[in-house]
Backbone:
């Protein structure tokens, strides 16, 4: 794609982003549904896929199991040793990456279109023929254990982990994705095989593809890579947030600054109020330099270097979470000011100007997601994952445009509640 065409393409996206997405909803011969954008502007194919499941489904005594399993998928197959597999990936211009989250396993695949046959073969190998050799298990276990030890001395990670541990009453939501030093030691090869079979199933699979590939060939490769995966009869657990803790807790740690993670209940991604809540959060703490928390706590009072909040939506439920660091002696003052801004949002809502600025940001940010084949494939995957419907791309801008100040402020009043906030503090706070 030459420079002038790229500029023209971006212009079109910003002028009318909804109409810029022309995708196909397809189904393979083996019954796998996926969405495809055929884009020949670059000789590149990108695919994003996810399996519902994830770390929250790990056995309590073997937390970190799913993460260990996905970390081993590029560590050797029936055809390749670990070293040979990674060499072939590099030589063929292929990227294969797996990650584990609380509620899902995600995969990213990219290949130069001229090398697509070799690329999809390598992806097929990693998903279908991983061997979980004992020597590779031990190697990756050691790597994860080293990472956990680093985390144990990092105040930000401690704050996040402790927040999850204390905030949620549901044990499945308390689990650490990486696991613990004790739980990693408990994991056997047989456990990894069970985790693989549990997580990699056709009925929990969502796929988005974008790039230089036609529908018939994409369908062929989808069946080749995923077609022989089993159909699970077991329903995987998804986040269903029950009672949540409020108030504050402290983990003492010798450090000149305290790290604070905070949050309250939010909304699920399919909630009709989701975009309204995102607009309120943008004004409150999600808008960077433009947010009220930044202006009040950083610019006006100089209490923090940065402060933020964001929505963390799951399929049926969600959270509003955020964080900051401040001097030990100013922790109490910072929390008080944050609570006050939360209360002001609840009682008085936002202004028409703030609403318009947030709308403009979200419409523009959507357009920026459409520039690369990878971001397009991720977008296709996400819309399917949350079952937002095939008309989402046409309706999204209209939904945002039709949000009025009354709608937004009703959500601000009903959702944002300073009394629900929970603060996890790591450091030596002076109250």
Residues:
């Amino acid at each position: 794609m030459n420079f002038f065409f790229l500029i023209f393409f971006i212009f079109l996206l910003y002028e009318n982003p909804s109409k810029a997405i022309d995708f196909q909803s397809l189904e393979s011969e083996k019954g796998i549904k996926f969405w495809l954008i055929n884009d020949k502007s670059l000789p590149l194919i990108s695919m994003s896929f996810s399996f519902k499941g994830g770390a929250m489904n790990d056995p309590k005594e073997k937390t970190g199991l799913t993460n260990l399993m996905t970390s081993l998928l590029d560590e050797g197959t029936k055809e390749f040793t670990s070293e040979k597999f990674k060499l072939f990936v590099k030589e063929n211009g292929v990227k294969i990456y797996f990650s584990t989250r609380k509620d899902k396993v995600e995969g990213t695949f990219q290949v130069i279109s001229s090398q697509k046959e070799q690329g999809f073969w390598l992806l097929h190998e990693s998903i279908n023929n991983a061997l979980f050799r004992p020597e590779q298990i031990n190697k990756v276990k050691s790597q994860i254990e080293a990472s956990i030890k680093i985390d144990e001395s990092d105040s930000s990670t401690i704050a996040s982990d402790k927040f999850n541990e204390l905030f949620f009453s549901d044990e499945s939501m308390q689990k650490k994705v990486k696991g613990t030093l004790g739980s990693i030691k408990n994991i056997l090869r047989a456990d990894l095989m069970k985790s693989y079979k549990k997580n990699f199933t056709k009925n929990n699979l969502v796929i988005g593809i974008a790039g230089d590939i036609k529908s018939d060939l994409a369908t062929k490769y989808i069946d080749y890579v995923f077609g022989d995966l089993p159909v699970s009869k077991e329903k995987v657990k998804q986040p269903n947030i029950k009672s949540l803790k409020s108030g504050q807790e402290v983990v003492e740690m010798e450090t000149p600054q305290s790290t604070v993670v905070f949050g309250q209940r939010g909304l699920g991604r399919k909630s009709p109020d989701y975009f309204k809540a995102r607009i309120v959060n943008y004004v409150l703490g999600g808008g960077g330099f433009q947010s009220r928390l930044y202006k009040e706590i950083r610019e006006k009072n100089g209490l923090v270097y940065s402060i933020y909040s964001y929505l963390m939506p799951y399929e049926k439920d969600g959270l509003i979470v955020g964080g900051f660091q401040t001097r030990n002696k100013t922790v109490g003052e910072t929390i008080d000011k944050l609570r006050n801004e939360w209360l002001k949002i609840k009682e008085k809502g936002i202004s028409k100007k703030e609403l318009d600025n947030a709308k403009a940001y979200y419409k523009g940010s959507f357009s920026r997601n459409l520039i690369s084949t990878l971001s397009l494939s991720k977008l296709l995957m996400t819309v399917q994952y949350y079952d937002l419907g095939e008309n989402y791309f046409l309706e999204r801008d209209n939904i945002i445009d039709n949000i009025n100040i009354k709608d937004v402020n009703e959500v601000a009043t009903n959702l944002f509640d300073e009394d629900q906030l929970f603060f996890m503090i790591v450091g030596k706070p002076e109250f």
